[in-house]
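User: quick one, fold this
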Amino acid sequence: MNTTRTGSAGARDVVAGSVIQSTPEVRIAFLRKVYTLFGGAMAVWMGTTLLVTFNTTLLEKAIGLMSFGFIGFILLMGAMFFLLRLTANAGTGISLLGLGLFGVLEGFLTAPLVYLALCQGNDQAMFALQNGVLYDGTLELGTGIVTQAFVLTLAVFGGLSTYALTTKRDFLWLRGALWMGFFGLMAIVLLSFFGIGGNIVSGWGFSVAFVLLMGGFVLYDTQNIMKRYPENMAAAAAATLLIDFIIMFKHILMLLMRRD
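Assistant:
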């Protein structure tokens, strides 16, 4: 399969009023704003994750958010979609509020996984979890695996995003395949709520598939925000990249946890 697009095909992907049609100065300013907001949202996500992970009361609430099965999953997806829509609002204040709240929600949803990773290698903590309670001791043994997952994600994400911005290759042709793969994996997740394919979701191959898929999304989304987003949608662009990063981080962390 030819993985490049012709110049005319690439031109058809550009939306009128998008940043790529502006001057180089405007494009650089837009990218600077996008990645500044992305960094800020990352800080909110990481701060919320750490706060919830080491606060038993908040951690119990976070676990509660994820314990409602199929209905809870649908409600969480609806909440995420609503916050993402806020980031696309032309008003700067509303878009920043949506981005910040999205980072907070993702922090709550990431904390239980980070807590589980921190319990790795701690027999007392794992025994407590197996009995349905949270360990109230010090969790230090698993900090290395969380750090490794974050550094790996940062390296992969940064490399792919930089490549997408500097290469002449066009990755917008990936859109159909990426979304088909995403909905396919999400269908497996939904079926697992009904007792179908649960062993697939818990397997390492599922996480590998998600890591590869999000790598493709990083390439696609990085170019997409340049060719289809106007100047006033920097917050929405940052939210899009944040989703790619968080999903990739979670599945890289799961892979490292299974390695042990």
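User: anything notable?
Assistant: Residues 1-11 have pLDDT under 50 and may be disordered.
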